[in-house]
Structures are given as C-alpha cells and as structure tokens.
Design a protein that fits this description.
The protein is an alpha/beta fold. It contains ten helices and eight strands. The longest helix has 47 residues.
C-alpha cells in the first residue's frame, strides 16, 4: 500500500521497468515534523477524486519525527513515505518530496502542510491553471492582508514581504510565504532550493529568473491548530527571510546587485572628490587631503565591486549551464522511460 524510503540509501540507482502511460497522476506531498496529532485530519480531508486526474497518491516526508508520524501515515494508508534519520528542515523536506514525487511518475505535484492549515477542497482550484496549461507554478493566496488570525503587525509584514519578493522576482506575489502550491512535472524538474530555512521565497525568485508562469488563486484556511514552527518570533523571521531573499536575489541577479553597490560607492566617492577639486579651484590649496583620501578609497572600492559583479555574472552563466545539465540528468533518471500524461 505504501513504499518506505530511507534517505541514507541511494535510491537514484533504482530503475523502473519502462512502460507507457497516458494517464495524469497527481501526488500530494506533505512535509512533516512531529505531526502525528494533526496528520490524520489532514489526510482525511484530501480529495480522492478530481475531474481530469486519473490517479491521486499521497506522499509523506517525515523530517526526523520522534512521535510516530511515519507509523501514523502507514496506518492511514499513505502510498509513499520518505523518512529522514534526523531533522533536516522544511526546505530539505520539500525538495526530497519533489524528488520522490517525480520518481513516482507525478505529472502534477501539490505541496501542503501537515497541520491542516490549508483547506484541501481548494486543491482542484489550485491545479486548474496547470490542467489548462496556463501556468507552471500555482500558489494559494490566503489574502494575508485580511487574515483575522494574524496580528496587525504580522499582516503588514506579510504584505510588505510579498511586495519585496514581487520586486525581486518580477512576479505578482500577493502571498509569497504560502506553502500551498502546485507544480507541473517540468517545473518540479527545474526547481532547486539551496536555502536551509524555507523554500517559499527562494522558489519564487527562481521562478521569476527562469521565466516560469506563476499564477495565484484565492484559497481558504482552517483554524490554526498550533503555533508556527518556522516563525519563532517576528525578529527571527525577518532576519531569516531577509538573508534568504538577499542570497537568492544575488545568486540570480548578481550583476544588478553589484552594479548598484558599486555605483553607490562611486557616487559617494565623487562627493568628496568634487569638493576637493572645488576648493582647489577657489584657491584653498592647503589642507583638505582627507577629502581626497576618502574619495580615492570609495572610488577604488566601487570599481572593485563592479569588477566583482562582472565576475559573479560570469559565474551565474556557468550556474545556468549547470542547472540545465542537472535538469536533463533529473529528467532521464526520473522518467525511467515513462511517457507522461502532461508535458
């Protein structure tokens, strides 16, 4: 009924018997960490039939749970279970889920939370843009600016953070931190997460850089069953999210980042430099050497930052080539000769 995978073993060497399949398979993946109490309700709410979907399966990623989460999933008849020997974090669990969903032949992958935050009845609405081939990635929009269970400060931070991600990714992102998402097989093959904190922000920046089509659909949420484990406090969340955004944006837009920094340093360096030249021109030739030194330092550092930006841009081109290679290797390994129902 289910398959149990130990992450300590290399499952990439296993080969499936080639076959031909034209049906569309949906896999709902659920990252879990000590979710034995809430998982049964979450699984019970998941749809068993959706128009246009021929096969629906469930995948649990047990992120080093100590409360019997995996056994709870088995008892509930979950089709696939991936277990980490220790807690590796949400981002690692998300990526492992995508990897296993692809290996199991998923055409569409839906990611949801184990605490039953998102209403499972919205899954058909979530995948509709994928079925219609209008989008590569669909994100559930909780309308964070109006959520009653969020404090006013948290609502403002969520709205502002989503705006920042929208600017960084070049996408319309009304709810950047929503984990209720659906991806096509092709989008999942091209998704890479390097952050150890969360996947939500980095994947949007990556999607924008990769020119994926991203669509948001309004969704509903259930009553909160527990406090967020990802957001220990607002300062902690701001610190972690800011680091993730800066790292991801710099990775995908290095020349832009370093050009802004270098240009700012050069502009600052020109101010004392112009002041020094002005004073010399009006006859004040004694002193003011500090302005000249400061100008020289800022100008030199500014040009060095620009050169670093050029080097980082060249490395970014190399990263894109490596991502394409990884994508092609993934496609070969995950397809196993299967003809997918959705391209």
């Amino acid at each position: 009924m289910y398959s149990s995978i130990d992450s300590s073993r290399d499952n990439m060497t296993s080969l499936r018997t080639p076959q031909v399949r034209t049906k569309t398979k949906l896999i709902v993946q659920i990252p879990c960490f000590n979710e034995a109490a809430t998982l049964p309700e979450t699984l019970a709410s998941l749809p068993r039939q959706i128009p246009g979907i021929d096969q629906i399966e469930f995948l649990i990623i047990d992120d080093g749970s100590k409360d019997g989460t995996a056994q709870t999933a088995r008892n509930a008849g979950v089709h696939h279970i991936v277990r980490f020997p220790r807690n590796l974090g949400l981002a690692a669990a998300f990526m492992k889920g995508l990897e296993e969903s692809l290996r199991q032949g998923a055409d569409i992958i839906v990611n949801t939370d184990a605490d039953n935050q998102y209403e499972a009845k919205d899954i058909p609405r979530l995948i509709e843009p994928l079925m219609a081939r209008r989008a590569d990635l669909v994100v559930g929009d909780r309308q964070v600016g109006r959520l009653s269970n969020f404090s006013p400060l948290k609502r403002r931070l969520q709205v502002f953070g989503s705006w920042v991600i929208g600017r960084a990714s070049g996408l319309n992102t009304p709810d950047a931190t929503s984990g209720f998402r659906a991806l096509t097989r092709e989008a999942a093959l091209r998704t890479f997460v390097l952050s150890g904190y969360s996947y939500t922000l980095e994947t949007l920046i990556q999607a924008g850089a990769s020119r994926m089509t991203v669509e948001y659909v309004p969704i509903s949420i259930n009553k909160q069953t527990r406090a967020s484990r990802l957001m220990r406090s607002i300062p902690h969340y701001i610190r972690k999210s800011t680091a993730t955004i800066l790292r991801a944006y710099t990775m995908y837009r290095p020349l832009r980042v370093f050009s802004v920094l270098g240009g700012a340093l050069i502009a600052l360096g020109m101010i004392p430099g112009i002041r020094f030249l002005y004073l010399i021109s009006v006859g004040q030739r004694v002193g003011h050497i500090q302005s000249l030194i400061l100008a020289a330092i800022l100008l030199i550092v500014g040009f060095q930052v620009l050169l670093i930006g050029l080097l980082a841009d060249l490395l970014s081109c190399n990263r894109k080539l490596l991502e394409e290679v990884i994508y092609r290797v993934r496609k070969i390994e995950m397809s196993g000769g299967i003809t997918q129902g959705m391209p």
